[in-house]
Amino acid sequence: MGDLLINFLSGPVPIEAYLGVSLIMFFAGVYGFLSRKSLLMILISVELMLNAADINFIVFNRYLYPGHMEGFFFALFTIAIAACETAVAIAIIINIYRNLSSVQAGELNQMKE
Amino acid sequence: MQYTLLIILLPLLSFIVLGLMDSKLKPKVAGAIGVSVLGIITLLSYISAFEYFYLHKIEGVYEKLVPLHIEWIRFNEFLHIDLGILLDPISIMMLVVITTVSLMVNIYSLEYMKGEKGFQRYYAFLSLFTFSMLGLVVATNIFQMYIFWELVGVSSYLLIGFYYTKPSAVAASKKAFIVTRFADLGFLIGILFLSFYTKTFDFNILNSGDASIFASTAGVSFMGISVMSWTMGLIFIGGAGKSAMFPLHIWLPDAMEGPTPVSALIHAATMVVAGVFLVARLFPVYHTYAPDVLHVIAYIGAFTSLFAAVIACVQTDIKRVLAFSTISQIGFMMVGLGVSGIGGHEGHEGLGYMASMFHLFTHAMFKALLFLGAGSVIHAVHSNEMNHMGGLRKYMPITNITFLIACLAIAGIFPFSGFFSKDEILAATFQFSPYLGATMSFIAGLTAFYMFRLYFNIFWGKEHKHEHTPHESPFTMAFPLVFLAAVTVVAGFLPFGKLVTADRSEYIIHLDPIVATVSIIIAVLSITLAALMYMKEKETPKQLATTFSGIFKMASNRFYIDEVYIFITKKIIFNLVSTPIAWFDRNVIDATINNIGVVTQWTSHKTKRFQSGQVQQYAYVFLVGTLIIAAIMLFV
Amino acid sequence: MADQIIFWILAAIMTVFSILAVTSKNIIRSATFLLFVLLGTAGLYLLLGYHYLFAVQIAVYAGGIMVLFIFAILLTNRPGENVKTEKYYRKVIAGITSFAGLAFCGHIIYWNVNKAYTLVATSELKVQDIGHTLMGTDKYQYLLPFEFISVLLLACIVGAIMIARKR
Amino acid sequence: MNFLSLFVLIPALMMIGLFVSKNRKQILFIMTFGASLQLIFTSVVTYMYLAERAAGNMAEMLFTADTVWYAPFNIHYSVGIDGVSVVMLLLSAIIIFAGIFASWKIEPLTKEFFIWYNLLSLGVFGFFICLDLFTMFLYYEIALVPMFLLIGIWGSGKKEFVAMKLILMLMACSALLLMCILGIYYQSGASSMNILEIAKHGIPLQAQYYLFPLTFLAFAIKGAMFPFHTWLPDGHASAPTAVSMFQAGVLMKLGGYGCFRIALYLMPQAAHEFAWIFIILSVISVIYGAFAAVAQKDLKYINAYSSVSHCGLVTFALLMFNQTAMTGAILQMLSHGLMAALIFALIGMIYGRTHTRLINEMSGLMKVLPFLGVSYVIGGLASLGLPGLSGFISEMTIFVGAFQEADTFYRVLTIIACSTIVITAVYILRMVGKILFGAIQDEHHKHLEDATWYERISVVTLIAAIFAVGSAPFWISAMIGESVMPVITQLAK
């Protein structure tokens, strides 16, 4: 038993372990995106998904192309863009809240009709 | 004989003038136009008759003249409708009959229709009728005949419905038109068949006796009956419709809703004999190629004649009695044609044809006289019902005498014209078949009986209380009566056999003394019977009516033929065909089309939800779609 | 060995908290759980040897974005008011879908990743190199995207102010 | 530019004129002047055509001209006329002329009404003069779209619904048609869309087998063939008077003309194969329409079904493939156009006075409206085929022609079709008897005014045309007869 554990833990972390973590994060984000109504919760879910994607970029870069930096920069830029996106989104949410006193996604249909 | 064109065109002209001017003309002017035009064409037709019968006889045979002939429309290299004038003995005879009766009716109407609203219209329609009827009789080809046949039908429609505010008149006109139209369908299909096989419409070619034009019909048959029998039978249906043969007779009694002079002109003297004329016109074809149809015609004629005579015995409306009498007499003419042959001076084959035409001529005169006399009576007592009359002989002597003459003529009493023509038909029928001859003699007896029932009921019998005293008609009405009575008296002595025969050559009439004697005896007996029953008011008729109540009731209701028709038209055609079709159209076909629209709308309404603007929904769909596509790409 | 142990601890934290973050009823708790996940992510970066990215992740995400979130939540949440509960069927549908996706992708990863792969040991990525690459104009250098991102950031700043300011 | 283009130019100029016109008087002046000009021009063209023929010019199409319009697709603007087009042009000109007087008092938006009306007439004239498939299709569409507005805005009853239904059904058949036209063009391998040239090339048999039924169907829908006729009754019932006249008088004829000019002419072999299906459908239309008309209560519906019946005879006769019947078909189009226009005009005028179209609510109108009443009777008699009026000529030509087929199948169908003359008489007399004869029952109807002068012009024009065709049919029948020969020769190959 102990041997087995040591055997398992010896060597580097397997790539699929990283991917599994990011996968769970990603689909947790998907679940949140689909099931929650609050715009803020949706935004939180989106952040989760973005992070999961970042992890994948990094992991692939590190494991598959160790000498290159494409994945790295992609993750970097994604973080920057995520920051922008969050800032703008939150500004919009606050504005909506001011006008409609609600941040529920299903109720925001005044522009539609 | 180019001037015969005028006989046709003048009435048309007068129709156009009267029709377009209508109420802008004064009634008197309209009447004058009508009468003078008719006077001119009557004169012209007399002249042409004289000229024809005196000058156009070559080697004992009358010529067939075609003084005018234009191509009106061309269908293909063989078939074309021509408009033209064909003069031969029967068309000349018809010209004389039509113009004479029409002139008399025109004169008569001056007084009879005085003060009616639409007097000008009435004269316009009379002119139209005269024009179409003349066009019919001079037709050079069968399609021209059909054209004028239809025009005659329409003028009859217009004249029956002259009192268009009266619902019964409107219904009667409609019925007359539709029933005859139905018969015309047969006529039309017959024409189509005939023209297909013979490649011609022309009477002269059809009647020329040239067997080659009928060559293509040889051996062609349908349901065991040769195609020529079908064709001629279908054509006869057209004639039967116009001539009110059973079972297409139902329109004629109703047609009495029209003004009485119209009944005299159209529904007694001229239009209703168009069927007889049609058969006579195509007689050589019938005789050579469809003798079986000719026999059918004879039997239909005999049955119709009997049927109508029985009904006539119990009707109380005087015009209806006359209408049924007309049907019965036309039956006589049909029998005459049906039993006839062509030529044959020895064996009397051609007697039937000649007799039939003769009867047509004499019948036109005395039946017009009867109707005009009845009109005169109606004018005086303002009723059509027999039991509102009685004892009128004191007040209306001229009408009385002329009516009596006509009754004697139709009963077949020597020396009035009816005697000669009817006797010849009887003689011809006896030659054909003694049984048929006996039947026809019996019908002749019935005729005498119901005519004198009518006569005695009107002029004798118990006097009815009148609101105002009946008076004799003025001159314009009396003159036609007298004129026609005179014709009726002398017409029997016309040498008809020399003029109008099946093969257009002279025919010597031998009166069969036995037949003549027998028929006179029967007629006298019937008259006596009628006199006994109706001259004085007696209980006998009523007793008889109660004794034979079943048959009496059936006869008074005209054997329920009308009800059958109403059942067929109203119940079957309207309720079982038209209404369901209309329903089907709205609720099945149209609904299908509409439902295509409804379904489309419903679908779009449903798919609209996909475009909800809900980001989560889009994301969901997007995700599912991606997964599906990825799965397909990986696993399939 | 140590890597492995650290990784599994981080993995457990991230998995649990990411799930908690999307299921929690209280939004402020969700934000907190998200913060833990973000920190865990930073830890993974560190574990993989990307120190710079670790710093950026902490500074931008755990620092900047989380603050924004907290502010937003506090601004839009009335005190004492809970988040409205979602409809049950939505949750079920979302759960089934995500689980299906998870299973699908997991299947692909499990069957397609080369097991024999080993991590090549490399030295730590220097900030100097990052700076050069970011500012260079050669192949595999990122000046242009960098400039784009900066313009984008500027636009976002202006936009956010425009949208959120009071009229 | 050929002088035939004037047919299109005159309505176009009238539209421009209407656009700048200021008041009602000017509008009516432009319309009257333009339509009269058009009528005169049509008569002149007819005369020129006859003169040219008399001079011995035996070309299939006269006065042809050809201009390239869009070279990449070989679309040409090519015009030319033969006897059939001349007849159709005459018909259109007469009906447009009469239609203007029938809508003399149209309100509101008089100007817009006439602009759209002119656009319709432009499309129709264009269709009849064109020889190029694509240009024909273009004009066909032009003659369709304004219907939507004319019914939707100036109609009555459920007008929006009806306008939508009508336009959708006809658009569906246009789509079918467009497909067929392209199919015909590409399959024939001709170097232009000109009909004459395509006819010379011929279309492969395989292609004909699917192109012919679709093309014929597309045009037959326009000609209201059972079971695709349902746009017609609703369309008539809701349309304003002039549009009803136009629709029954001219638009339905586009269908028959198209069947004749495109379907039969270009695809003769397949026509032989498929004729029996369409013949049966036509005979059903003839009888079905007539029976359905017997049971209707609304005047416009009666006449709409009557149109179905009469137009069924057109396709019936076209498919008999002989010269007589085909001449009859064209004559029937002419005659039905005139009769239907007359009757719809009169229904509109009567409706304008009594405000009802239900036959049960009217009676005895002859007494108060003698002019309209007499005209109505004439229209009815023409419709039931009275000799001397146009209906007789066309029906008899059709029946005689159809009877030249000795086959029992054709013969039975012809006899069934013949029986329409009786059923027609039934519904016409029923209608006339109910509304015109009898005593007036409705108090309001006792003080109706008879026709005004402009209504009289409209009615008299149509009646005169009906009489002219009916009493002197020889020249028009001869003109059509020689013009259908090219199609017959094609079919005989």
What does this protein look like?
The complex is a heterotetramer of chains A (113), B (636), C (167) and D (493). With 636 residues, chain B is mainly α. Chain B contains 25 helices and six strands. Chain C is built from six helices and no strands. Chain C is globular. The mean pLDDT of chain C is 84. Chain D is mainly alpha-helical. The mean pLDDT of chain D is 87. Chain D has helices at residues 6-20, 24-54, 83-102, 110-129, 133-142, 145-154, 159-188, 195-201, 205-222, 231-238, 241-266, 268-294, 299-318, 323-354, 365-368, 370-383, 390-402, 408-418, 420-435, 453-471, 474-483, 485-492, and strands at residues 62-70, 75-81. Chain D has a two-stranded antiparallel ribbon with strand order 1-2. In chain D, helix 16 packs antiparallel against helix 19. Classes of the chains: A mainly alpha (113), B mainly alpha (636), C mainly alpha (167), D mainly alpha (493). Chains in contact: A-B, A-C, B-C, B-D. The A-B interface holds A 30, 33-34, 42, 105-106, 109, 112 and B 613-616, 619-620, 623.
SSE layout and pairings?
The complex is a heterotetramer of chains A (113), B (636), C (167) and D (493).
Chain B: H1 4-21, H2 27-55, E1 57-58, E2 61-62, E3 65-74, E4 80-87, H3 89-112, H4 119-137, H5 142-160, H6 167-198, H7 203-206, E5 221-222, E6 225-226, H8 227-242, H9 251-254, H10 260-269, H11 274-281, H12 283-289, H13 291-312, H14 318-338, H15 351-381, H16 397-411, H17 417-432, H18 434-459, H19 475-490, H20 496-499, H21 513-534, H22 540-547, H23 549-556, H24 561-607, H25 615-635
Antiparallel strand pairs in B: 1-2, 3-4, 5-6
Helix pairs in contact in B: 1-2, 1-4, 2-3, 2-4, 3-4, 3-10, 3-15, 3-19, 4-5, 5-6, 6-8, 8-11, 8-13, 10-15, 13-14, 13-18, 14-15, 14-17, 14-18, 15-16, 15-17, 15-19, 16-17, 16-18, 16-19, 17-18, 17-21, 18-21, 22-23
Chain C: H1 2-23, H2 27-48, H3 51-76, H4 88-112, H5 127-135, H6 143-164
Helix pairs in contact in C: 1-2, 2-3
Chain D: H1 6-20, H2 24-54, E1 62-70, E2 75-81, H3 83-102, H4 110-129, H5 133-142, H6 145-154, H7 159-188, H8 195-201, H9 205-222, H10 231-238, H11 241-266, H12 268-294, H13 299-318, H14 323-354, H15 365-368, H16 370-383, H17 390-402, H18 408-418, H19 420-435, H20 453-471, H21 474-483, H22 485-492
Antiparallel strand pairs in D: 1-2
